[in-house]
Amino acid sequence: MTTPRIRLAGLRKAFGGTVVLHDVDLDVRAGEVHCLAGENGAGKSTLIRVLTGAVRRDAGEYEVDGRPMPSAIGPATARAAGIGAVYQELSLLPELTVAENLLIGALPARAGVVDRRRLRAEAARKLERVELDLDPLTPVRALPAATRQLVEIARVLGDDPRVVIFDEPTTALSGAEAATLLRRIAALRDDGVAVLYVSHRLEEMFEVGDRVTVLRDGTVTRTGPMRGVTEDGLIAAMVGRDVEDLYPASGRRVEGAPLLRVRGLRPRGSAHAIDLDVRAGEIVGVAGLLGAGRSELLRAVFGADPPAAGTVEVDGRRVPAGRPREAVRAGIGLLSEDRKELGLLPELSIRENVSVASLHGIATHGVLSRRREAERVDEVLDGLRLRAASYDQPVSTLSGGNQQKVLLARWLVTDVRVLLFDEPTKGVDVGAKAELYTVIGDLAARGMAIVVVSSYLPELLGLVDRIVVLRRGAVVGDLPAAEATEESLLTLASTGRSNGTGRA
Amino acid sequence: MALVVRERALDDPSPRIVGWREAVGREGGGLVVLVVLFGALALATDSFLTSGNLSNLSRQWAVFGIIAIGELLVILTKGIDLSVGSVVGLSGAVAAQLLVAGFPVPLAVLCAAAVGAAVGVVNGVLVAYAKLPPFIVTLGMMGAARGLVLVITNANTVQPLPDGFSSIANDTVWGVPNLFLITVVVILVAGVLLRRTVFGRYVYATGSNAESARLAGVPVPRVLVSVYALSGLLAGVGGILLASRLDAGVPTMGETYELDAIAACVIGGASLFGAKGSALGAAAGALITSTLNNGGNLLGINSFYLRIAIGVLILLAVAFDELQGRLSERGARTTAEPQPDPASGRARPGAP
User: Fold this and answer.
1) Chain B contact set for A422 (CB, 8 A)
2) CA geometry: angle at B169 spanning B167 and B171, to 5°?
3) What phi and psi values does residue A139 have, to the nearest 5 degrees?
4) Number of other residues whose CB lies within 10 A of the CB of residue A415
5) Are B246 and B52 in contact (CB under 8 A)?
6) Are the Cβ atoms of B344 and A328 closer than 8 angstroms?
């Protein structure tokens, strides 16, 4: 057998005390598409970052074409060794032209003045490699997402890489665009390039992959040829794990008419209208792959983005669409995934961050009573067991889990009745996680209607009563959590069909 | 293992270093500079601490102080208002022309202040609803308003004005200049507004992170329109007081005052990135520049050098603030928990 293009043996990587990759072996050969599968947080991204030199490995061997790579490898070393990567977030500069983007960092110039003719010619040559018929002087922002993805690939191929890593390249693409991209990847393989393909979408792996390696919690659980692997087998390798005892026992009574009633809600940019009912005391989970429209659904319910159509009612009363202030008044709270950008007020104190949504209840004629503010806020924060030296310190000094508690407290101080959580435990460590689960369970027991979006399936299964599965903006499943399994959810989310109804 | 260490660190947080700045508030730096400046001038000259000079100084400071307060409100929301200098000129010219046309003093004053507020509302609407950058909006307004002044006055000084008008700025109450009293009232009201009211909290929230604030139910566009309107109103009041003090409507009145106002805010501890600064700080910043100018005159220092000194002072204020921020960040890092793995975003189940 020939030397593999990439060989990893016994790779180990930890961040702080958390081991992210443990004893990982992987080899990628010339002329094959090697798929890398695994749930969110299984360590795929970290593995890619080790390969491209973005992070250093702690231990283990890393060889390219049989040559060992130094442990202090940087991005430049990896690139020089012939490793290129296409990421899901495009790294093109939208205001520059295609040609400038392709050659940035090495613009052809004479005495500092860009040689436009050579720029154009070299860019055209790079575009040819991906068979993209495009004027190199088009600004990137004028291009659709799929074309940008191709420009990105053209840029990577311009360095004549021997290995190309694709990290979730189809997330932003439509079905037809994704199919075209997969054909290009197959063509690359036929040219003798080694391809490492990372995706959530199992059907893509079956279409383009030659071999597959499955990561689970940082270790390889399966590796082998794609032939002979079934979708069920792959999913089992991805999720086969014991659900921990993190979750509160569900002793809640779910009763009455829906507290939150969503009818025909169509987030802007989505083709599908969504209905959703959540009763008092109920926790509803929303599952789906990246880009399935889960966050968009929550934002539309809250009115963070004005929806294209549809209505939201809380306790039978219509909530004016597209206005967070009205949503707050109606008793809806949103804890967004990106706490830093869409939640925290970093210059303000912990207490001020909590009270900002309920200042009118604390003030008389617009004048704040600091004492009343402290009373109401501190009681809630104490109840959540927030750990801080003082509630007057800036909120930015807190850890992820405690920041999440501050944002939760913000809604608890208002008379919130519907809480929408988007990835509530992202960036939160295990201990704080269990606490958050307990709190969410308690809130439901107190009669709130709760919606939880999570990519982490064990969390959904352990925490919620009912799971709604989204796929490409549409509801493809709605089932009691007790009847759902990780396998059935993943199958639904990636194929839109339930288990056992046949597969393509 | 890591978890255990973390718990202990939290139960027993290492003592937080309370800086003197935290003790006296963010305007502390400005106040210290002021005290030093007053002391030095009192020692260096015989004339500084005389009642004549102090009331003179308070008059020089008043208009700058009032404009700086308006500018501060805008800066707190991460914005900037370059039009305040032109609004000073505009409201002064409007007041003067109305008085010359025979309007009673209260009505002329009211109209002039309303013109200032109206200019601010236009700025605010363009920033909040048309979502144009504050710098550009107010730069355009700075030119347009100044042009309007020249049209109204035909580039001539407007005078004579009735006695009742000039007494607004030039009279005293028990020996204290009216101008000083008005300015103190403005500062106190602004201080209460910012520290004690819902509106004030919304101003800081908007400047800290406008999108987070919006998602928490803060009416961000209304807050923005309000701060630009208040900035315009206060600049209008400044223009009226300046015209009253000069006893004339001067077309070039207020030129470059926008820069003085921004400088006062920055020297007083405000951050152009929003959500940092106080009314007292901005007022102290304005007093520092006024005192430098006043003391420089008394000492017979070439005013060119004074400009250099004020420029250096702005740089020092910002550098000092940066240093302070870095120090407190370092202090905070020792008390904060270690962040969990950023790559996976969740800890591994079963990890020890």
Assistant:
1) none
2) 55
3) -70, 140
4) 12
5) no
6) no
Q: CB contacts < 8 Å between A and B, how many?
A: 180
- Sheet with strand A33-37: strands edge to edge: A83-86, A163-167, A194-198, A33-37, A211-216, A219-225
Residue range A98-117, pLDDT digits in tens: 888 888 777 888 778 888 88
Domain that holds residue A397: 340-414
pLDDT tens digits for range B14-55: 333 334 444 444 456 677 888 888 899 999 888 898 988 998
Q: With left for phi above 0 and alpha for psi between -120 and 50, is residue A228 left, alpha or beta?
A: left
What's the mean pLDDT in B312-329? 76
> B57-326 belongs to which CATH class?
mainly alpha
pLDDT score, position A17: 60
- Both structure tokens of B146: 């100044």
* Closest CA of chain B from A427, distance in Å: 4
Report which of A380, A63, A37 is spatially closest to residue A216, judged by C-alpha positions.
A37
What does the DSSP 8-state code read for residue A416? Answer: -
- The reply to whether the predicted model has a pTM over 0.90 is no
What distance in Å separates residue A332's CA from the closest CA in chain B?
10
Residue A194: beta bridge partners?
A163
Residue A387 shares a structural domain with residue A445: no
- Alpha-carbon separation of residue A439 from A246, A248, A383 (angstroms): 12, 9, 10
Among B198, B214, B220, B271, the strongest candidate for a mutation testing the A interface, having the largest count of A CBs within 10 A, is B198
Same domain, A294 and A344: no
SS3 for B349?
Answer: coil
Contact B85, B232 (CB under 8 A): no
Q: Which residues of A144-155 are buried (b: 16+ CB within 10 A; e: fewer)?
A: eebbbbbbbbbb
Cis peptide leading into residue B160 (ω within 30°): yes
How many domains in chain A? 3
Interface test with A, best of B220, B271, B337 (most A CBs within 10 A): B337
Nearest-angstrom CA–CA distance, B348 and B352: 9
Give first-to-last CA distance, chain B, whole Å: 6
Beta strands A18-28; A194-198: pairing state: unpaired
Closest CB to A345 among B1, B205, B342: B205
**pLDDT-based confidence at A38, cuts 50/70/90?**
confident
The single-letter DSSP state of residue A247 is S
Check whether residue A426 and residue A479 sit in a common domain: yes
Share of chain B above pLDDT 90, in %: 62
Q: How many CB atoms neighbour CB B186 within 10 A? A: 22
CA separation for the pair A474, A293 (Å, rounded): 8
Mark whether A95 and A131 lie in a shared domain.
yes
Nearest-by-CA chain A residue for B10:
A387
A367 and A283 inside one domain: no
Q: Which helix (H) or strand (E) holds A476?
A: strand A474-480
* Contact call for B351 and A19, based on CB within 8 A: yes
Structure tokens that stand for B294 in this block: 């006043």
Q: Report residue A83 as tokens.
A: 């490793």
Residues A234 and A123 in one domain: yes
CB under 8 Å to A231, separation ≥6 — which residues? A202, A206, A491, A495, A503
Please report the pLDDT score of residue A318 as a whole number: 94
